[in-house]
Amino acid sequence: MKMPPYxxxxxxxxxSKVEDWQEQYAAYLAEKEAKEFNDCEKETPGxxxxxxxxxxxxxxxxYLAEKEKALEDNST
Length: 76
Description:
The protein has 76 residues and is mainly α.
């Protein structure tokens, strides 16, 4: 890897295993997705309340629920 010269500064770059980073990132994403799924499962459309200006999230959740129902109706 070629880096531009910076006078008076020594440059050191740590190179780690690429797979290690990918595994950590995949684990992070899986944990994040599971947390969001659990949070979403706890809330039902009838019990959603707008907090901290997140009205768009409620509307989007309702939209997704309608689309899912429409897809289920079309597949039968």
